[in-house]
Amino acid sequence: MILFFAPEFSSLADHIALLEAGITFELSEVDLDSKRLGDGSSYLAVNPKGQVPALRFDDGEVLTENVAILAWIADRAAHLAPAGALGNYRMLEMLSCIASEIHKRFPIYFSLPEEAREAVGDDIVRWFGYLCPRLQHGYLFGETFGVVDAYLFAMARGALAMELPLGDAYRDYVARVEARPAVQAALRRERGKAQ
Ligand SMILES: N[C@@H](CCC(=O)N[C@@H](CS)C(=O)NCC(=O)O)C(=O)O
Q: Which of 28, 69, 88, 191 counts the highest number of beta carbons within 10 A?
C-alpha cells in the first residue's frame, strides 16, 4: 500500500493515522506544482484530481479524500474511532465538518490577494472556535486520540503557521498531538530525515 503525500500538507493526517493504526505502508512524495512523483511519472495517473492524499492498495485500487481514507483507517483500528452506537457516524460528522468548513477554506484563503484574505481567515478561526470546547479533555472525542484528531491537528498546525489567532487551547492541542511518537515519526519521515 502506498500513501501519496506532500510534506506537511493535509496528507500528514493520513500519514499519522496509518502509523497510529500500525498499518504497513510506503510513502510516495508528490510535487504538487508539477504533479510529478519522485521517478518523474505523472501523479495524475494515480489521482486525476491532482491532490493529496491518495492511498493506493496492492491490487491497484486508489482511495482519495481525507474523509474516506481516514474512515478506512479507523475501520481497521477501533481505538482510533469514537465509541458508542453512533460512534462511526459521529466520526464522519466530524471529518466532514473539518473537510468542508475548515480545510476547504485554506485554498480559498491563499487564492485571494493578501488584502482580501481577512474575511476568509475570520471564518476559519470561527470554525476552529466552534470545535474548541470539545478539546477540554484533550482530544475531539474526550481523552482518546482518533483519526479526527489527526485531521484537526494538521489543519490547526497549518492555521497557526499562517498566524491565524486560534488561541492557547489550540496551541496546547497542537503541542499535545505533536508530542505523540507517531506524529514525531510522520514529521521526521516527511522532512526526509528517516525515510
Ligand atoms: N477534498 C480533498 C482536498 C485535498 C487537498 O486540498 N489537498 C491539497 C493539499 S492539502 C492539494 O493537494 N492541493 C493541490 C491542488 O489542489 O492542486 C481531501 O480532503 O482529500
A: 69
Specify the amino acid at residue 40. G
What's the pLDDT tens digit per position in 39-51?
999 999 999 999 9
Query: Residues in the chain, how many?
Result: 195
C-alpha cell at 120: 476568509
Residue in the structure block whose three cell numbers are 500513501: 3
pTM given for the model: 0.97
Share of the chain above pLDDT 90, in %: 98
- Mutate which of 51, 95, 101, 162 for ligand 1? The one with the most ligand atoms within 8 Å of its CB, which is 51
CA 24 – CA 63 distance, rounded (Å): 16
Q: Give the domain CATH number at 8.
A: 3.40.30.10
> Are 91 and 125 part of one and the same domain?
yes
Task: Please answer whether residues 41 and 18 qualify as being in contact, where contact means their C-beta atoms are separated by less than 8 angstroms.
Answer: no
Q: Check if the beta carbon of residue 42 is closer than 8 Å to that of residue 35.
A: yes
